[in-house]
Amino acid sequence: MDIDNGASTALLTDQYELTMLAAALADGSAHRRCTFEVFARRLPNGRRYGVVAGTGRLMDALADFQFGAPELAVIEGFSDARTLAWLRDYRFTGDIDGYAEGDLYFPDSPILSVRGTFAECVVLETLILSIFNHDSAIASAAARMVSAASGRRMIEMGSRRTHELAAPASSRAAYLAGFDATSNLEAVRRYGVPGAGTSAHAFTLLHSGSDGEHEAAAFRSQVEALGTGTTLLVDTFDITQGVATAIEVAGPELGGVRIDSGDLGVLARQVRDQLDRLGATKTRIVVSGDLDEYAIAALRAEPVDVYGVGTSLVTGSGAPTAGMVYKIVEVEGVPVAKRSSHKQSRGGTKKAVRLSRATGTIVEEVVYPAEGPAPATNGFHSRELLTPLVRGGKILDSLPSLSDSRDLVARQLISLPWEGLKLSSGEPAVPTTFP
């Protein structure tokens, strides 16, 4: 969730974290040194990889995680004076390491390692998970769509299908995963994502009245305002007539036509043939309307130039959360682990390396004790996955930019074994092992 810049993020949390804090302060355990780790026990059903997203947003949120008078006024209704006094002075002073934003992850990958006192770490749980679960779900779905599109332009246009504060975060995650632009202007302002957008059916209908359908008047108005490089929506009425009218009004140099309904594959072929006959050989075809990675893949052989994706993207294409958890794994240097059925965790602070062939293809991810020796590479190239993000409570200045993370996603997708890019259900593309 995004909030206004400069506003406190401290209440983006669950009450149970503060009840644990109160009890730990009372019994003296609050100041024990601990490690918490973020990981996903499994990938969403059928998925073969995940994309780490949200790190940059977490760093921004962490900087504003402090309890002022408005926040304390909410908490005093259920907490005690000792806890309120501790929260009043709260600043995270620990260390955080994490996978680079834009890197891939697999089941049990230790995506984030948070170290400090129990008190200062436990209150961050909901903030961390809400950001990473949302952004990683969107980025993981977006990466599958980008792969299915095979290099064709992708526009994120899901703002009207998600919460208004989640929309810019979704745009950012989609751009990180390889989308080219967004319709959401707050994402343009806040994150520098390129913007895109033209018109909807309402604009065409606006120019119609009791005397008939004046599609040409709508197109003419749009072209006069935005130039011939604009994209005209041609399926409000009859699509064949709409294409003819669009070229009649704008000429063969029209930038694009958009199709938002019907059998997109059949219509794209028909529209391409019609445009070419009219001399508009460079006019692009943009398609939208309930697209997901499977629909995009099915259109791969069709003359589609641009995909506009909304609902499926901002809902994670069936997996709206990445299923990540935030678990304590070490207390005062002693490994601790949860043993509940189907919810086990592995104790101890960890590091991870990814092994790959000389060609760059990943073969294995190895998770090992942070204080232990690095695992044998067996002749493979080895890359450390956890990088410093925060030291002594200070957010490091050397963190990658959104553009850097976007480039990393593209490189890592290329490094997957070929079967890892399949859209069909299957096992994770890379095994995670624990020596």
UniProtKB/TrEMBL annotation:
Pathway(s) where this gene product acts = Cofactor biosynthesis; NAD(+) biosynthesis; nicotinate D-ribonucleotide from nicotinate: step 1/1
Q: Where is the Nicotinate/nicotinamide phosphoribosyltransferase domain?
A: 154-352
Per the UniProt record, which EC number(s) apply here? 6.3.4.21
What are the protein's GO molecular function terms?
glycosyltransferase activity
* Broad class of enzyme this protein falls into: ligase
Under the heading NCBIfam families, the entry gives: NAPRTase_put (TIGR01513), PRK09243.1-5 (NF006698), PRK12484.1 (NF009131)
Q: Which family does it belong to?
A: Belongs to the NAPRTase family.
Name of this protein: Nicotinate phosphoribosyltransferase
Query: Which organism is this protein's natural source?
Result: Nocardia callitridis
